C-alpha cells in the first residue's frame, strides 16, 4: 500500500508499536468501496459477519467507551453499563465519536485515537481464528485475532451481547 490515508498510517503505527503480528500490518486493505456495516465488510472480504470486529463508540456517563463487538451481535447497553459501573451507556453522536477517535463512524479502528479509549472486546470474537477490524477510514480493514485486539487496545474481554 503506498501513501496510506493519515488515519490508516496512524493505525498501522499503533498496531506496530503494540506488537501486532506482521499478518495484521501486511494485511491492511483499502477496498474500492466503503464498508460501513459488518454485513458489507463481510461480503467484501468473503467472511462470516461474526468475524467482523465492529468498533462501536458509546457515551458512558459522558466518557467514550469503545466496544469491539462481533458483527453478529447487538451490544446490550444495560449489560455494558453494569460491567463498567456506569449509570448510563448510550450510542454516541457522530461528533462525539470523531472527537474521541479522530475517525469517522463506519471506519473507527480499534486503535489510533488521540488518547487510548477504555475498550471492551467481545468474547464472541474469540471463536474465530481471524477477525477483521476497520483501519481508520470506511474503506480500510485489517486482519487480526481476538487475543491481538485485547493486547493492542489494552482492552478487557467481555460478554457484551
Feature tags:
YbaK protein, about 160 residues, 6 helices, alpha/beta, eight-stranded mixed sheet
Largest sheet: 8 strands, mixed
| Overall geometry | globular
* Nearest-integer average pLDDT: 95
Given helix and strand content, the structural type is alpha/beta
CATH class: Alpha Beta
3D architecture notes:
- It is a single chain.
- The protein has 161 residues and is α/β, with parallel strands linked by helices.
- The chain has one domain: Alpha-Beta Complex (YbaK protein).
- It has six helices and eight strands, in the order H-H-E-H-E-E-H-E-H-E-E-E-H-E.
- Strands 1, 2, 3, 4, 5, 6, 7 and 8 form an eight-stranded mixed sheet that branches.
- A hairpin with a 2-residue loop joins strand 2 and strand 3.
- The chain is globular and about 40 Å long.
- The N and C termini lie far apart (35 Å).
- 43% of the residues are buried.
- The mean pLDDT is 95.
Quick description:
By secondary structure, the chain is of the alpha/beta class. Helix content is 30%, strand content 24%.
